[in-house]
Amino acid sequence: PLPADRDLSAAERLFKGEAQGKFGCAPCHGVSGAGDGKLSAQFDPRPRNFACAETIRDVPDGQLFWIIRFGSPGASMPPHKDFSDEQIWELVMHVRQLAK
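The structure corresponding to this sequence follows.
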């Protein structure tokens, strides 16, 4: 629902955990999204590798949104209900860029 040419610098900061008051994604998924964050070894299954296009190619944007918002049952992905809808859509777009 966001323009393809959207500036994603805020999403990148949110992903890296640099946004004020937000945990971010990088502690688990790694700065590059490769699933190798400093906390990744403690999870089973391990965090998803967003840097691999094959890993997320068939995952629809709406499903990525849902997983970020509500977490992933059966995995260690927590819900991020403190992120706005706009922030989540920007994160989905950022994750897509990591896989290119």
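The helical segments are 9-16, 26-29, 53-56, 61-70, 85-98.
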